[in-house]
Amino acid sequence: MKTLYILRHAKSSWEFEELSDHDRPLNKRGRNDAPLIGRELSSRGVSPELIISSPAVRAISTATLVGKELGYDPDDITIDDRIYGGDKNTLLEVVQETPVEYETVMLIGHNEALTEFANMLSPEVVGSIPTAGVVALAFNCESWYEISRDNAEFLFYDFPKNYE
Predict the structure, then answer these.
(1) Residue 82, annotated ligand binder?
(2) Domains in the chain, ordered, with CATH?
(3) Residue 19: its pLDDT value, please?
(4) Of 6, 19, 77, 79, whose CB neighbour count within 10 A is largest?
């Protein structure tokens, strides 16, 4: 059994026009929402063995803040350049390449690819994933290469606005 948490980065800032899209930081709401969703995931017993993040500043910051709430060492976050700008098939490749010994993985990235990826795998339709939103899926398989909608179970879909 494999469990995948598909997490969109928290809300980012558009305040710094001189920064590239890649370098945009989280804004105040994002800095609050990432730990919030991390605490909610922790209360559900979520404990990823591997966190894979986009290299974008906002994604790494989200990974760090969520990971902290889950007891995950930020130095262990795996950065995969393909996530930034990648499509749903690229995200599938990233996950399929995960070593078989990992049972629980969290993937942190960007829309629209992230929502398309979740819908490609989920037996239930997921709307556009909001910032700091997470979709959890379990797969009845031994290898990450085998994950598909056919062996997927929808676990939950959560996001910070559920707690306002």
Answers:
(1) no
(2) 2-11+20-163 (3.40.50.1240)
(3) 67
(4) 6
